[in-house]
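Before we proceed, please read the two lines closing this message. Report back on whether the structure tokens fit the sequence:
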Amino acid sequence: MRTPHVSRLVAVPAVLSAVALLAACGSMGGSGAMGTSFNQSSLPASIQVPPGNKVAMETVGMGDVTYECRDKANAPGQTEWVFAGPDAKLMDRSGKQVGKYYGPPATWEAMDGSKLTATQLAVAPSSPTSLPYQLVKANPAMGSGAMTGVTYIQRVALTGGVAPSAMPCTPATKGQKQTVKYQADYIFWKAS
């Protein structure tokens, strides 16, 4: 007789967790500060943020990546497209601009003027036609505001951004630049 009672006790927390998860997903159209709604468990382990941090803000970056045709490192006479820098608007989940992402150096800047740079810790493949996933460790923010206290930034949910394929990079085109469109979610974390 105790087994059915125990099963119901186990089922109640599971149902409550599902309701809480659905409520969190339903609130994603807010200001961009999402609390704990982002779940990184499906991401490659190398780009997961370590325990002791919580999601502070979720943004969607939309813009361009510039590539420059340069000499290939350690390959005399060969050239390749090299990442030269991003230029994107950071939008919250409702579509309101909350910042921008630009470089070099790669800089995330909130509309309140606070900004930071970061050090890349890891990348992992996403798809052949998109930039890789990325995890960076934030340097201390400059200015006071949304970027203050950010510890890590993840780049996920990627579309586009890979080196151009329409124009070849050859010794004759060395120095030329090309831009490609991209979109990515940038998840900002702070210590919990």
Observations:
- The longest strand covers residues 53-71.
- The chain has one helix and nine strands.
